[in-house]
Structures are given as C-alpha cells and as structure tokens.
C-alpha cells in the first residue's frame, strides 16, 4: 500500500543515488506528448477502468505509509534505560527484600520498614508514566502530515468525468482537473491550462513567499523543486486558475511522501539532551563510587560478622554471623540511598516546568521539557526567512510618482510592515491635498485589485494575493482626496474605507485577467460621469512598453519620450537591486469598443473579453502614472536580536526556499551580513552547497551564512553536518518542508501563527508570535535556567556527599547507626526538594547573553567545585556523626547544657565498641525524657539501640539545618553572600521555611515521629544543632574567596601572556 508509481515517475530515495536518478522519468523536462506516451494515456479520454485496476495492483494506493510506533511495553522499558533509575531500582528491590527478611525473622512485619522501597517504587512509576506520555506524542507529526492530503479529485476515466473520486484511488497516469481552491491530490504534470493563468500556493512545501505561476512548458532536467514550473505537488493549493494535469507520482513517491519518510528517519535518530547525557555520566560515576564505598564499608566491618583463628599460621575455625552480615548489608543499602539524589528527577522536572511558564510569558511555548535546558547551549540558529525574520505580509515600501515635468520623479518612503492600514505612514505626504497624479495611482491600486484585508484577534489578515492586499493598505495610508466625502456604506468595515470610496466612484464592469505573457491585469470601469476607463497594473517593463503617454503631477498628459522612459527604468533598477518587487500603474480613457459596454453578455465588446489573446491590444497606448516597490519586510526587532546573538556567540544561518537576491537583501538589512560584505563564499543556493567537496569547511566559517532555494533534504543535511561538528542546533520553520529538519535539530522551533500542524508536531518549541527575537529571548531564559539547574544539582549532590560521609564515618568508627534509610529518603525527597526548586528562581546574571554558549560537553562539576563539595561533604559527615557522639559522651558543649533530659553519658571507647556491651560489668543506663515522653529500654545494652533515638534526632536535625544553610551557599557559584544576599531570591527563604516546617512536623507529630524513629528536641538541643550546622556557611565562604582569588590571578596571567604575544 502507498508504494507510489515506481515505474511511472519513481523519484530517487537519495540525491546521491545516480543510478536511480538515471532511471527516473523526468516528466517536468518532457513535453506533453512524451508524457502521454510514457504513461500510456490520452489526456482527452483518461485511463480505462481495467488499466486503473492493473496499476493499483502494482503501485498501491495514493496514501502515506503508516509507520508502526513503539509498543507501550517497549516505551515503558525504555524509561528504565537510565543509570540513576537503575541504581534506584536496585536499591528499592534490595530494601524490599531486607524489610521482608527482617519481618520474617522477627515474626512480625513493621509497615515502616517498607516505606523506603515503596516511595522509591512510586518515584520510578511516576517517572515512567511521564516519559511514556512524552514519547507517545512523537508520531503525531506523521499523523498531522496525512491531514494535508487531499481527500477527493476530479478525474477523467473511460472518456467520462468523475467529479469526486477519493484521492486515495488515484494511480500514475490518471488525468485530473484542478480549479481554484482545490488541494492537489498527487504530484502531477500540468498538461493543459484552461484559464489564462494558473497560480499555486506551495510555500509550505518549498518555502517560497509568494504564489507561483505554473505553465505546461517543460523545464530543464536538473531544475530544483521551485524551478519545476510545469509540476504541481501534493498538498499544495490552487489560488488562481484551472487546468488539466497528469498524475506522475503517488503516495510515498510524492514530494510530501519524501517529507513523511524524512520525518520518520529523523525521529529514529533523536539524541539525548546535553543535560541528560551529563546526568547519565554522573550516574555511571556514582555507580562506581557507591560500589567502591560499599566494598570499603564491608571490608572495615568484616571483623564484626566474620572471625577466625590462626592455627599453625593458617586461618581456621571460621565464625560467621548472618545477622550481623545482614546488618552491615543494610548499612551498605543506606549508603546507596544516601548517595543517590532521589529528589533530583522531580526537582529537574519542576524547574523545567517553571521555565516553560516563564518562556510562555515571552511567547515561546515549549512542547518538550528537556528542550528548555538545551536552548541554553545553542551555538547555531538556522532560521527560515519568510515569516520568521520577515513578517510574511507583503508591504509597499516605496511609491514613485511623476513630477511637474517628464524629467522629474517623486519618491515617497512608506512605513509599516504589516497589513494594518494604521501601521505606519507615508513620509513627506501631502495629507488631504493629493495631486491628480497621486489620485490616479490610488484609484488604480484600489480598483484594479481583487484582494481584501480583515482584522481577526488583533491580527490583520489578507484575503487574495498578498501583493494586492498590500496595495489596498497603501491606498488607506494615502487617504482620500481633498473635499471628498466619506463612505456611506455599512457593507464594509472601516479598515478599507478609502478603497470603498474609490470603488463607489468607479464601478468595475470587466476584468482582463493576469497572464504570464503580458504580465499585467486590467479592469474596465464605469465612472459616475458614465465615462469608461481601463485601469492597468503589472510588471513595470511590460506596462511601460505598452504606454505612449505619461501623466504629470497636475493631471496633464504628455508624450512618453525616451528620456522619461529611461528615468522610469532607472528608478525600477534601483528598486529591483534592493530586492523590491515592482508594479507599474497605467490607464486609458479612449476605449472605442467599450463606450456603450456595461457588462452585458450580448454586447459585441464582450466577445473581445472572452479571448485572452485580445488583452494586449486592449491594453495598448496606455498612459503611465507611476510605480511602487513591495516586499515581505523584516520584523523591526530582528536586527537587535541578530546583534544579541552575535554578542552571545551564537551564529545565525538563514535557510530559505526564496530566491537568492531577495534573501541577500533581507540578510544585509537585518545584520546577518554587513552592508558591503562580500557574499561569494557566504551565500549559496541549496543545490550549490550540496555540490561542495568540503561542506563542513563551509559551515565552519565565522559569521552568518545564507542558503537560498533550499529543499527539505538540503536543510536536513545542513543540520546533520552541524551536529556532527559538535554544534547545538536550533532550527526554525513553518512549512511541511521544514518538518524533517525540525525533528532532526537539537531544538526544533515552529511558527505558531503561520506554521503548519506538521511543523508544530515535529517541533520542540512553538513561537506564539512567529518572531525571531522570541527565540533569542528563549535562549537567554534557557541559559538562566541551566545556571539555576546547575546550582541546585550541585546543592543536592553536595548534600548527598555529606550523607555518604556520615554513613561512612559511622561504619569506620564503629559507632551505632546515626541515620536510617527512611530518614535519608525523607531528607533527599522532601526536605531538600523545596530549596532545590527555589534555586530555580535565582535571578539571571546581567551579562548572561554576553557570554559565549557553553559547550554541550562541559561538565556540571569541575575539579575545583568537586573539591569544594568534598570539603563541605566531609564537614556534613563530621557534623552529623559528631553531634551523635557529643550527645552520648558530653554533658555540655560550647556552654550548651545537654544533661537536662537525664540521659546516661558513656565514654567514646564504650560508644565505639558498643557491640561488646554484653561483656561489660556494672554498666547501667537510665531512662531519659524526650518532650512529654520517657524513653526506656529492655536492658542496659539496648541503650545503644533504642536509646540512641535522641542522638539520631540530633543527627537528622543537624543534617537538615546544614542543608538549609548550604542552599544559601548555592545562590552563586563563586559570589559571596555579602554580594548576593539571601533576599535576592525570596523564594529560597520561603522554601527554607517550608523545609524546616516539614521537619518540625515529623518531630512533633507523634505518629510521624514514630514512622521516622525520632523524638522531639528541647531548646538547648536546638541551639546545639544550630551551633554545629552554621559553620558550613563560613567554610564555603572561605573556599569561594580562594576560588575568586585563583580565578582572577589566572585571568590576569592570561591577559599578560596575550599582551606579550601581541
């Protein structure tokens, strides 16, 4: 199904496949007779029913293939293909088994033992659900593409016309009739024009900014897609005229079918984001570190569960304690839980989600969360021209009228870049006092025109040809002649009131349609004075050639001599070299054949109008009145955005389907190129680029680059080569032809207003305002988000280092376990979560868009930062273990009395050898108070198990307090808290309050205190907690100071060496 006509116009799969290229029947380069012979069909009679069935069996239906997506189970399994997730899964399974074993061994199962594995499983399930939901949206671009296909076609078969045949039933060789408004059902060769002109809107497929004229004349064999003027392509729309076509390709062999295949291929080669790669690398390193520490802990404690005696120099009489072995295995599991930042995935997702909200406020709608971070390291922006750098709204920018005599011209600059009639003015315009020549120009522009402009949702939309809509907007800016009365009609909006005024004065009675030979359009009008006139607009050279006279400023008409003709052509040349599309205006009052004509079919003059070959003679001996220059103007804010990109070290490459001269002029104007820059090596067509021997060398050039007349495969190749070269590529686009490159790029950016659904579904981000400057603002936001993410990732990792150090020291010193896994899980998930999320609200640096983009392989943590957090981690470990030891061994510390609860003091030696307690003589331990409760134990030795609950609470509280203070350290990587005080981020202060509040909640709510194995603390004990926790700020301030001094000395040394080299 959907094979398309392999033998009847098979297109090559790859441009480099020469043999395939030779076998292809190039219908665009053959005349109509050759096409009929090749497809064995007559244009008059079409295919026979028998031949249709035969071809359908061979070539299938005219449909796009449906690629099988991933199954739901493969998507679920894919979510666990992540190092951190696998470590978490392993830790959860082991924790669950140990909890089950302990329950079986003791005869009763405590639900609190299962809290830790169940919470970890819950995290993994939520992560998998979110991942599967995101992945399942990936194939929507292909489904949206199918909606572009035509559903029905008007076909000639068996010498009969079938008015509405399902488009899927078309086969190569079918004869199809197209008319205005039809969507083209397959790739077809135009064989006959029924109307004098045929225009198609194919910008979504080729990137051209205007509707394209089509003919039935063959073109060169090596023509690009834009140059195939005798071909119409599936999914494009007829905007003017009607014709007969011959189907050459169907299904996947059409141009839109190739795009479909390219999207599928691009979706298969999607890569992880830079952040995901770094987190995976971090996970792998973490796995090794956890493994080494677990082994080290076991080696340190092996003496407790495995002992032996030496007999004759050999170890014998081995004694193994399975219970103690299991205990130390639990410590190793606790180590794994401590080392893994379980809250990191949730905090990253939250931060990215907050980032998407910020970007949405700037008109950048993020479809895929990870793309927020990827934006921050964008090094190249490949931008489409039409609709992104420009407004995609044709606008008159220059009006040239005739002066007092034939040797002078008047030029007016016209402001405005949209279809808004009030959006801009005409400079030096004689408002309310238009002379006769300007009035004639306004009349022709208003009446010789089939377009309209309406307002919709604060946007101005053109109906009809964009150039004609721009002329109507010009008429509104010109205003009404002096002394004229306003329109008294409710049939039209006030948007085009001046055009309506002219239409009421001069009633159209006939239209001479535009055709490609005479390149003009004319209308015959009947004025209120019953005077017939012909108003003409068209290509300046053609209109000027058919003109014999010229109208001066005061309305008088004189002969158009050679000097006047030369002057007009000179003005035309100046405007054309500025990439303006020029239209000339002329009129004729002497219409001998139409003096009595009023639009009646039975009038003799009506027969003249039925034959387009008469139009040139009717449009002869014209009176030339002036010309205008139009273009799709650049957006006003784009120039500054390009400058911002240059300052931020981001290269801008423009890739467009439009013609080279127009694109170069726009690129010079917006600052991609300098006004006098040599463009020989900077501006190439897509075809020229593909013929280069060393494409990567071309792409490595500094500054901006331009690729014009680009096809979808050219865009894909450019993106692929840039990515191979290590660039992080953001690609913008709005059409079907852009979708494969959008899918392939690191960041695909689609247009929200003009973009097709295909482009939007293939993208990572959608611009709600179609504005290039929005991308630049989003890049700045992405950089800010990345910096903030780096801050909270470092914060969480440093906190986890502290937890690892705490457990390691506990095991190394041999003291009772100070922190249990469920407490560590609470700290990592709940207590650390709010401050880490709040760090995502850190204000951006002022110079964030003046720094070069970071490399995608830059490490999250460099050696100095690692050393800093190792120092901090060691302090966290010493503080949490130290406060545990202090409670057991000291009655007071730093003047803080700790004896008020009546607990029994022991020596450090006793604490370190608590396992030998049963062998001690005369050891007793007294019950002690904790809040309103009294802590008792079964025997003296149980003091080191049940009685350690207060010491554990102190360790947990110190850990929480240190991590709150450490979050203040994370406000800036190197800046002191004196230069960046805590209140620069009020959200962080709120988050710290929330975290402390949650900690108080589990301390002072009896049920929660029992679940977490802790008890309430007194005021003095809280003072001890703060005294032990606060130094973490002082230590990091000293380390930051050393870092700043080292950094400044390195910078000055580099500056001196640079000066010496110069």
Automatic annotation (TrEMBL):
Spans traversing the lipid bilayer: 83-101, 113-133, 286-306, 326-354, 804-826, 866-888, 951-968, 988-1009, 1021-1042
Enzyme Commission number: 7.2.2.10
Topology within the bilayer: Multi-pass membrane protein
Pfam families attached to this UniProt entry: Cation_ATPase, Cation_ATPase_C, Cation_ATPase_N, E1-E2_ATPase, Hydrolase_3
Compartments in which it is found: Membrane
Major subcellular site: membrane
Alphabetized UniProt keyword annotations: ATP-binding, Calcium, Calcium transport, Ion transport, Magnesium, Membrane, Metal-binding, Nucleotide-binding, Translocase, Transmembrane, Transmembrane helix, Transport
Xref: SMART domains: Cation_ATPase_N
Segments forming domain Cation-transporting P-type ATPase N-terminal: 26-100
GO MF assignments: ATP binding; ATP hydrolysis activity; metal ion binding; P-type calcium transporter activity
Chemical reaction(s) catalysed: Ca(2+)(in) + ATP + H2O = Ca(2+)(out) + ADP + phosphate + H(+)
Family assignment from sequence similarity: Belongs to the cation transport ATPase (P-type) (TC 3.A.3) family. Type IIA subfamily.
Protein name: P-type Ca(2+) transporter
Species of origin: Arachis hypogaea
Lineage: Eukaryota, Viridiplantae, Streptophyta, Embryophyta, Tracheophyta
